[in-house]
Amino acid sequence: MVNQVALRAIEPEDVEILYQWENNMELWVVSDTQKPFSRHQLQQYIKGINLDIYQSKELRLMIETEEENPVTIGIIDLFDFDPFHNRAGVGIIIHKDFEGKGFASKALDLFIDYCFNNLGIFQLYCTIATNNTRSIKLFESKGFIKTGIRQKWRKIGKDYIDEAFYQLINE
What we know:
This protein is an alpha+beta fold and 171 residues long.
């Protein structure tokens, strides 16, 4: 059985784990990051993250195991929130030590429910490199439908790969 997970707000104590993850160049391919972040930048980000979603246009939550001594295992993001069209992008990263154990699936379930039933969002979307089969399987299992392909959209080294666009509509 998969352990349960919980989503929580980012705390000032999370700066070290964010520093590690945001500066992990292996993850830059999925996060579109192109330069490292300093601890100071992350501290400032954490101070400002408590803005209302209508001001910041984003929501970032930490994913942790739900046990007596919880372990922070990932991050889930709502980004590019558009209150007029009532849609937002979603992204998720699980630490490699916890991949393949169902944590991302549980966290995404919680997040979708929160977005649709608490925030009243009509549509979530995500973009996934077409070679990222694990993420494609995860989002398709939650009902996200591929609605398009951007050809040679992401640059990796000297190569370009396609990126798929997925949507989940709150019917």
